Amino acid sequence: MNAITQSQTSQLKPSGGFDLSPQNFEQALTFSNYLADSDMVPKDFKGKPGNCLIAMQWGAELGLKPLQSLQNLAVINGRPALWGDAVIALVLSSSVCEYVNEDDDGETAYCRVKRRGGLEQVRTFSMEDAKRAGLAGKQGPWMQYPKRMRQMRARAFALRDVFPDVLRGMAVAEELQDMAAAAQAPVTKDMGSAEVLVTPYTDEEFAGKLPQWRAPIEAGKKSADDLMTFVLSKATNRAFTDAQKAALRAIKQKPAGAATAPVVSIDPLAERLRTAADHDQLYEAASLMEAVTDEAQRLRLNEIFEARQAELDGAQE
Prior knowledge:
This protein has helices at 3-8, 25-37, 49-62, 66-72, 84-92, 127-132, 141-144, 146-162, 164-167, 173-184, 203-218, 224-234, 242-249, 266-275, 279-287, 295-316; strands spanning 73-76, 79-82, 97-104, 108-115, 121-126, 171-172, 199-200, 238-239. It is mainly alpha-helical.
């Protein structure tokens, strides 16, 4: 009797069934060889016990049984990914998920998700998005099943953004397939200019924001370069001029004992974050979080910030 059978026959369930999940590395190797010889595994695993072994490990980290792993993992351009139906199954079975609702109006797919304790977030994918990505009208699923493909794209954006801890950073197979198809498509000679407009802060804008940017530098909490990196990570379409960079780098840290910034009131700041009308207002309020010393309060404010940021991002899509 082989190692798997010896171990597993002693683990019969009350229903009379049994679990073939390997209990150690040797059993996993043996099981991988059986699976690779089987006609009931996808082509990426047929005759490839090494692929089977790695897929089982990927699946185990996500909470999948070995056979579930092989049926729900895809290998696209050498990168493992989960099929969209497995992605939503993992999220819905997680205790942190309150709901996932999907809809389509014939032109745009919507995926509305809510994490327990958080706000509802929405991700969309429209035929206009598909056209910009070079997907609409292509031979294959985008021509035959455009509604289904829109659904998978909106689902991938929503679940990867809101439940990264559940998916452990795993990519979504339908999304990777589209990316692979786009990479293989012939490139036209004139692609035009990129539609990313970066606007430097005007002198007036810089002067208005300088006091809030000065405070963390003077307090020694951020260097000028760290602050600029933080600001631009939140306002990705903005930039500093060379003169503005020099002005920020010229700010000196206050000596010990110097007057500190006024204490921030938590509740009014939380309300500013919740009601920010646009990204500029949101980031201006967020800059005051630097003055909050209580870690629990900072975590609470950061959750409010991320929720409002997602709402504003969704409104722009």
